[in-house]
Amino acid sequence: MSDTQFLDWPFLDDSHRAMAAALDDWCARELHVDHDGDTDAACVALVRQLGAAGWLKYCVPAVYGGALDQLDSRSLCLARETLARHDGLADFAFAMQGLGSGAITLAGRPAVQSRYLPRVARGEAIAAFALSEPEAGSDVAAMQCTAVRDGEHFVLNGEKTWISNGGIADFYCVFARTGEAPGARGISAFVVDANTPGLTVAERIDVCAPHPLARLRFSDCRVPADHLLGEPGQGFKLAMMTLDIFRASVAAAALGFARRALDEGVARAKSRQMFGHTLADFQLTQAALGEMATAVDGAALLTYRAAWLRDARGQRTTREAAMAKMFATEEAQRVIDRALQMFGGAGVMRGNVVERLYREIRALRIYEGATEVQKLIIARELLKDA
């Protein structure tokens, strides 16, 4: 592990430190970033690998095969930071198991929890979180996908897009309008198996840092009524509760990317010869490294503060998680860009670590709430508390 001083901060305890060290050792031995171009197969293999090694147990509570009694935000953050530093797709595979099943953990009926969560922990079932739509991304209240009660089923019609794990997931946590009230108050959540008639993958989406992504279509898709998560009309609240848990982990993933970029930048600065000196001898380089290191520590402090407040204090951390997500993703983009600059032309060559990091960080500034949305969340919470 590059810089482990943050593990001694009071936000973490000895169990977290042991877990982070063990995962870092495992990643160094087991993860290989070259995924041979078949992203779907690589992601499925990583889920199986993470499950077999026991790391996905941190995505579900102990009663359903998890590592801890309840979801621990600090463990999720440490896992994502460590995985991201080694392999962005491994981080993605881990994160989606947690996010995709989080609503089941929070609000699923015991029979539904027993059916899905143990398989998530073992890496035998791939999870997905289906919230966004073509006209309802940041504005969830504009959701148009509907779910209408019909006897012992709900019938879903509509589309979801930008769905991570779309096309490879075994089940989706789907949010749809059930109409109990206008806007966000009339949305409910459901577990939908991928092989349910009426659910199709309408389009696969290719992005700059490849991972499984798709647009889904629901056409008279019948879902058992007991697959409703929580109460009717409470889906938006459940989605926000789920994101509150996992949003800080997005910051942690950005932090992992930034730490790796800082390591690569320092190594490059110390080894690259220029005008009879190393790049590290120049004050401009030293100033850049100083700013990069400060940004990394700032992101880490905000990230683990948010996670600690949720775990140790039991606080609602909407504002703190939004701050962490906004700051860590934006600063990671800057850190990685500066590291790439130190490599010159080599930095944009396909296969260079910093080139990969440059592509991987960009999406984190958008998903689970774009930076602009995080600013609004922070301001709303600030004004509410004033």
Number of DSSP strand runs: 10
Number of helices: 10
Order of helical and strand elements: HHHHHEEEEEEEEHEEHHHH
* Unreliable sequence segments: none
Taking strands numbered 1, 2, ... along the chain, how are they ordered across the largest sheet? 1-4-5-8
Q: What does the largest sheet look like?
A: 4 strands, mixed
Distance, first to last CA: 41 Å
Approximately how much beta-strand content do the residues carry?
Answer: 15-25%
Q: Give the class from helix and strand content and strand pairing.
A: alpha+beta
* Structural Rg: 21 Å
Polypeptide structure, described:
With 386 residues, the protein is an alpha+beta fold. Helices cover 51% and strands 15% of the residues. A hairpin with a 2-residue loop joins strand 2 and strand 3 (153-164). Helix 8 (318-343) packs antiparallel against helix 9 (353-364) and helix 8 (318-343) packs antiparallel against helix 10. The mean pLDDT is 94.
List the helices and strands and how they pair.
Elements (H helix, E strand, L loop, with lengths): L13 H17 L8 H14 L20 H14 L1 H20 L2 H13 L4 E4 L15 E5 L2 E12 L6 E7 L9 E7 L5 E6 L8 E12 L3 E2 L5 H37 L1 E2 L2 E2 L4 H30 L5 H26 L9 H12 L6 H15 L1
Parallel strand pairs: 1-4
Antiparallel strand pairs: 2-3, 3-7, 4-5, 5-8, 6-7, 9-10
Helix pairs in contact: 1-3, 2-4, 3-4, 3-6, 4-5, 4-6, 6-7, 6-8, 6-9, 7-8, 8-9, 8-10
